[in-house]
Amino acid sequence: MDEKNLKVLLAEDDENLGSLLREYLIAKGLNTDLFVNGELALAGFRKNKYDLCLLDVMMPKMDGFTLAREIRKQNKKVPFIFLTAKSLKEDVIEGFTAGADDYMTKPFSMEELLFRIRAILRRTDNNTIQPDEKYKIGDYDFDSQKQILKYSGREQKLTTKESELLKLLCDNMNNILERNFALNTIWQEDSYFNARSMDVYITKLRKYLRDDSSIQILNIHGKGYKLIV
Fold first, then answer.
1. pLDDT at 59 over 50
2. CATH of residue 40
């Protein structure tokens, strides 16, 4: 399915955060409707077809858990993610009991939220977003599935981790790839030793891309990396 045809329901009573999230998701190609309380969100869900729901837990008129249960009565398959300031074990358990596909504690990275949305939609029947496999990086061509980087007729075969890291950088080209997100995505743990290992891979990727002077991989202090083209 074309990502631009996907619809997201966003229920968030903090209008500033809700507006920021909506604008970000729309900019990333996801058609997103914002509702500022649970009752409005439920009414909106009954009128429209949505491919995924983002539900704040603490909302006036109807909380996110109740909203999720009402949505489940209407549609047993639509996936949803809870957005909450709560991180208590009991709240997490209640969220998944209500049928959540994922659970994010505020404050969270919008970039990470987007990756989780895409991961869930890839797993959902008939709502598949095909991940990008081929990228243009300056004068380079990168096939992430075949793990091959091409430049001027030459091919560089990448290791799995090199390919995964370059793909994340490409998915966030000219934007910051957050260090912790990359570590948790590729190594499943943001330990000191994994962080050092990732630095080594970044150095290798810089070497592979050095023939095009318009390309840079920058260290963004305290945040992560940025692939600039």
1. yes
2. 3.40.50.2300
